[in-house]
Amino acid sequence: MGRRRGSAVNKMFIWVRKQSMKVKIFLGVACFMSSLLGLRFLVKDINQFFVASEFVHAAGILVLIYKLTTQNTCSGLSLQTQELTAIFLAVRLCCSFMMEHDIHTILDFATLVSTLWVIYMIRFKLKATYNEDLDDVPKYYLIVPCAILSLFIYPHTYHSHLSKISWAFCVYLESISVLPQLSMMQKTKMIEPSTAHYVFALGVARFLGCAHWIIQVYESAGAYLFLLGSGYFWLPMVLLAEAVQTFILADFCYYYVKSVVNGQLLVSLPPV
Q1: Where are the domains positioned within the chain?
Q2: pTM for the full model?
Q3: What are the tens digits of pLDDT across the range 159-200?
């Protein structure tokens, strides 16, 4: 029975692979909307999506820690992505101390400490196994645009101007922080399990974050888009940032699930 089920799923992946880009996009959107509908009926308090998202991200970091401590190698991991992650987490943690003081603050602190440990291991303890030549996306290419955008589009709240700009910067940087890791994986083609689990966890986390905003907009008939914002653009930009990262990770998640279904330990990406 298990083999038949696996064979049927594998045939489905092969069928999807053969379809045109328009059909693939339609199927992707259909799956995304179906998942949103299912989540809406299963979860009563949609604010829990953010907590779940942060838990999944933290779980992904724990997978990396397990890899680094048991395998003594950081091969395939992007230091650039880890440092970008540490930057937006550190800034968001400062904002959280001033603006929230809740479960999000605790989760961000734990994730930041774990990320800093991963950075330390890559930079110093396991430097000999780091593929620096493949991790070549300059951080400032991503940081500078996010910083400039945050000066113009940020939440309109009662907090300090610096806090509002900093929070916007975190949202924008988080949405593209995974790009160096994806670029590195595209060059290697074969991704070992721990790295694949980590990136898949990021994909799930971003899907949950995106689901929160979409459901909020839907249930308010669009009015939620304009509740806060500088020039009415803040919440639309948040939704766009979440959608961008979800889209960026969607293709990898497809191949990850396909590899798991086929019982493969390594995730294989197609040529560009």
Answers
A1: 45-261
A2: 0.81
A3: 788 888 998 999 899 989 999 998 998 888 778 888 888 988
